[in-house]
Recover the amino acids of this structure.
């Protein structure tokens, strides 16, 4: 079975069980999983595995790498289905084309599919190893807390999203038993994502008034901007660590210097233009990943 077929299989089997075999309903379950997002998460795991070891190691450990990719595909599918379940009322106006508002998938069906997909991720995480299972269980707890309690709480929700992003890179390191660089990569992803999430909340402050207790609403957009810039500054300060610890080659430094420059630029411009600022942060994160890739494999 090819890697692509395996990843599709991970999503399709629980969806088929939940749909009762109805092709149209099955399509609704697959759409609810948002396979594009799942594929991006799987790519992050693969990229992390390559960065943390070497291409030959990834080839030698490809079964574990592929299983780790399947873990995050199942987890993401479960999380997206859970999100659709909890947002079923707001989606009637915000996202009317999603499967639950369209009546293709029932709320109970979405909850069953989510439970099934999380169960698949737990089993696959256990196959990879104890620490992979621990990360997926912890991430599931964070995801559930986010949907039930933290989504409207601003900073707590931002922290949850940042952890879930960082955990992707831990899965890649765990797949090849190389965690030293994975922890640094995850930490950088955490702080950069946290900064970006706060800037996004500054951008959305008008729409969030009365519905969410975001950091910009609690302390004002200016103060929240300072916090966001501080998170980006931490990411910049941590960025030389992989080279100083001899975990990457010299090719890492020029590219990460470009990424740091873009991070610093975004930390200054988001005060005047949050929308542009969060887009620039995303670009800086992409450049930083490229730096890790070049430094890790050369």
């Amino acid at each position: 079975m090819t890697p692509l077929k395996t990843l599709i299989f991970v999503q399709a089997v629980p969806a088929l069980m939940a749909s009762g075999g109805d092709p149209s309903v099955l399509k609704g379950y697959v759409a609810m999983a948002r396979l594009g997002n799942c594929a991006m998460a799987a790519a992050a795991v693969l990229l992390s595995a390559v960065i943390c070891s070497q291409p030959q190691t990834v080839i030698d450990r490809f079964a574990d790498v592929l299983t780790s990719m399947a873990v995050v595909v199942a987890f993401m599918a479960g999380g997206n289905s859970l999100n659709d379940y909890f947002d079923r009322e707001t989606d009637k106006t915000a996202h009317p084309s999603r499967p639950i508002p369209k009546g293709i998938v029932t709320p109970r069906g979405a909850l069953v599919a989510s439970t099934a997909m999380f169960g698949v991720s737990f089993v696959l995480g256990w196959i990879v190893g104890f620490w992979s299972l621990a990360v997926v269980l912890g991430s599931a707890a964070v995801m559930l807390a986010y949907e039930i309690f933290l989504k409207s709480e601003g900073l707590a929700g931002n922290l949850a999203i940042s952890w879930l992003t960082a955990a992707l890179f831990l899965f890649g390191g765990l797949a090849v038993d190389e965690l030293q660089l994975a922890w640094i990569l995850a930490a950088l992803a955490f702080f950069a994502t946290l900064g970006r999430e706060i800037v996004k909340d500054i951008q959305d402050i008008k729409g969030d008034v009365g519905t969410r207790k975001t950091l910009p609403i609690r302390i004002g957009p200016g103060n929240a901007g300072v916090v966001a810039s501080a998170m980006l500054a931490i990411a910049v300060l941590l960025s030389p660590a992989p080279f100083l610890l001899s975990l990457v080659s010299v090719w890492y430094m020029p590219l990460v210097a470009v990424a740091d420059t873009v991070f610093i630029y975004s930390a200054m411009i988001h005060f005047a233009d949050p929308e542009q600022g969060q887009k620039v942060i995303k670009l800086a994160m992409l450049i930083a990943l490229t730096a890790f890739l070049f430094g890790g494999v050369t």
